[in-house]
Amino acid sequence: MGEWPGALRRALDAFDEPAAQAVLDRLVSDLSLTTMLREVVLPYLAELGERWVQGTASIAQEHFASNLIRGRLAGLARGWGDGQGPRAVLACPPAELHDLALMIFGIALNRRGWRIDYLGANTPVDEVTRAAQARHPDLVVLATTRPENLEPLTAELIVLARHASLVLAGAGATPQLAAAVQARLLTGDPVTAADNIGWPGEDLAGAAAKEK
Q1: Of 10, 60, 86, 115, which cross-links 138 as Cys (Cβ 3.0–4.6 Å)?
Q2: Domains 4-77 and 87-211 belong to one CATH topology
Q3: What is the pTM of this model?
């Protein structure tokens, strides 16, 4: 990968859309999709978030970079609801606006044969439940960066888990909450998490063992 991650950061920080797109084009040509997402895009997004919190990246820089990367991810996600594989409904709970990691998870999961119904950021849990009742997915994944986005929703999550196989993911998903609502817990980066999902009927531990 060499200089490309640094080149991506410099282009995005400078609001240079053509240069940033050129770097991403080169990464797509040089790397596998999962390698690019795991080793370049996800670390960049994590660093950007840290710089924004520290005040070394402006709101404008964060918005510009996030929107450009979202556009590229949307292109990779095109058609991810097609096919004959198992179906997953993906959403972030209310107050969770950061869904790029969930998009990356969906893209990686789709590359493993899954069909994706993407509800995105800030989705009420009762709407996720309605989607699960209508679509009969093999999996529902809720992802959040903060525990306080999920913990007040325990009762609603228990109802959702009765209608679909529920998985909690992201830094805000805790083992305690997953156990309380009878959901599974995904850990690690979104690409690795998608690798470890397995197929319907296969538990996460078994799937993870097969990846080693």
Answers
A1: 86
A2: no
A3: 0.90
Provide the CB-side half-sphere exposure for 100 (13 A, CA). Answer: 21
With b for 16 or more beta-carbon neighbours within 10 A and e for fewer, the 166-192 pattern comes to bbbbbebbeeebbeebebbbbeebbbb
Where exactly are the structural domains of the chain?
Answer: 4-77, 87-211
Domain 4-77: CATH superfamily, name plus number = Methionine synthase domain (1.10.1240.10)
Nearest to residue 130, comparing CAs of 156, 105, 96?
A: 156
- Whether residue 150 contacts residue 125, with contact meaning beta carbons closer than 8 Å, is answered with no
Query: What pLDDT does 72 receive?
Result: 94
Q: Quick: pLDDT tens for 170-182.
A: 999 999 999 999 9
**Contact (CB, 8 A) for 73 and 103:** yes
Could you tell me which CATH class the domain 87-211 is placed in?
alpha beta
CA-wise closest residue to 167 among 114, 97, 212, 95? 114
Q: At residue 102, does pLDDT exceed 80?
A: yes
Residues whose CB falls within 8 Å of the CB of residue 80, separated by 6 or more in sequence, listed in order:
106, 107, 110, 115, 116, 118
Average pLDDT along the chain:
90
In three-state secondary structure terms, 120 is strand
**pLDDT digit string (tens) for 134-144?**
999 999 999 99
Task: Show the CA angle centred on residue 35, arms to residues 34 and 36, nearest 5°.
Answer: 90
